[in-house]
Input
Amino acid sequence: MRPLRFGVTASPSGSPSQWKDLAAKAEDLGYDVILLADHMGRQWAPLLAALAAAEATARLRVGIQVIANDFRHPAVLAKEVATLDLLTGGRFEFGIGVGHPPTSPTGRSDYALLGMKMDEPGVRVARLEESVRIIKRFLTSPEPFDFDGKFFRLKGVEPQPRPAQQPGPPVMIAGAGPRMLRLAGREADIVNIAPRPPTKGTTSRGSTGFGLTIHDELALIRQGAGDRYDSLELCVFADRAAVTDDPAPEAEALAAEFGIGLEALHEMPHTLIGPPGLLEERVLEHREKYGVSYRIVPGGLMDAFAPVVRRLAGK
Output
């Protein structure tokens, strides 16, 4: 089994010194990676903020969870990723997805703020697939290359600079749905798995995500990966986590939301709810059962979750 790694999300605000202090704190608490989102609104530009976090730390890796593919040309993005990996001494982890429509404080989506049409999921996944192929080619090949796709056509692109990590910084793909999961299995180094229960449930919003369980997700990733499945790092963002000595109220509310029982809820790697000792047991159980070895928690839990990180990181 892979050693456990822990990441924490963060949204830079305030002064540059406060952001650097936050990154240094994440490193001191034992986290392996600090990750930034990619949205319009009040967030800082994630690639530049990641560089500042790396400059304020010595060991901490920096990453994006995740770049919205539609907002940047893949060749330009690849050049920025290679440069960032070089400037951080090989501590950058590149995450990418199709983008989704979270709303800003004004109530408008990222796409609306940029005056862009948000295409249907199938179109966005197809465009992401081309982008990932271009980015990986840029990061791993020292020779100029062409690309002739449906969405992008490149001629004689020179992949410079060369990243510090060889054959390139790890690529994380995050998303949901069969096509995205097979793509992630085929192309990613790290697969960020969407929150799905181990059993199907019915909620007020209908069946849980695409009618898939986490077992279905793993099977789809395996379909895409084939023989390379065992080389993948499986990642989960515990977006429904809470460090508490009284887990019952929150757990019961979430179980009702997903339309599943409490036992099934606690089998979900995305719902770490309980005191530190219990959460340690569940992190180990989730690795044993699902192969999930890379855990990401929200920034608001950085301090409360730190005892789990100190006990389990690298084990």
In short: The longest strand covers residues 92-97.
